[in-house]
Amino acid sequence: MPNSQPDLSIIIVSWNVWNLLRACIRSIEQNSRPAPGDTAQLRYFEANGKQQTLELIVVDNASNDAIPDLVAALFPWVRVIANASNLGFTAGNNRGYALSRGRFVFFLNPDTELLDGSLAQLFTALAREERVGLVGLQLRYADNSVQSSRRRFPTRLTGFFESTWLGQWWPNNPWSRRLHMAGWPADFQQDVDWVVGAAMLARRSVLEAVRVPIYEGPFDQGFFMYSEELDLCRRIKQAGWRVVYVPQAVIVHYEGRSSEQVVAARHIHFNTSKVRYYAKYFGQNWAEVLRRYLLLEFYLQWQTENLKRLLGHKRALRFSRMKVYRQVIDSGLNSPTNLNQSE
Known about the structure:
The protein is α/β, with parallel strands linked by helices.
């Protein structure tokens, strides 16, 4: 029994968010129950009309808060992988995937909490539809408001209007509205292009079908973090599988609690990944135009903060922001030029 394949592997990559991770694991425990005897590292849950088994793997990216020891002490049924350095979100998930055994794989952020019954609903939605390769669920903020989590693929112009100054000045622009599927109700189950990577459940067979052999798992490690789920879903769709949004399953998502610890790095990774995605799917020339535009935005933001500083307005805050923007500008938002290994 202990060597049998679990039905589900849950993989969580964690970095310095112990309190959130603890709550996340407890929510998984609330959606399952202990397995008896020699299956101590497995748990049971009811889904798709029968009893399913799950394993949980936590991959810790060299946290400063002793996560491996804390998890082992409070949750002995959880398998913990302690990395010697921060491998990033994609490589961390790939490592957890390589060590997992489930027929289905659930990539889950540590800053999430499963509502009761959500795990069973999400698992059932995937298991019952053979042509569905990956499913996502409804995300909610801590105040219970809906967090947009289903998407259409970006077009060539989307990158200039999504999470940019242009997007702030023109919030109802057609490119952002299309990306976020504005007008589609959040409680409507539907086929989508991709889902936000905070919680994604996929068939192992599908992940293996699209996996690049040089990597341990399905994610393209050219994306340190951000855009990796967009790229994965695009490859799954290109391979002929469906991606479905399942709003009946709900998770509370305390968004960005790891990345907000390093603001400059967050900006750099987010925008570098955006540029890399555009290079991979729209060509290097278009990606270079986008890269230069994004750098121009950060330069203008630096100049704006500097002007406010010179006028004596909240000088400490202005200095702090200028430092962040300078780090982004100095990075160049350079994306790897050789994309053949990840195509």
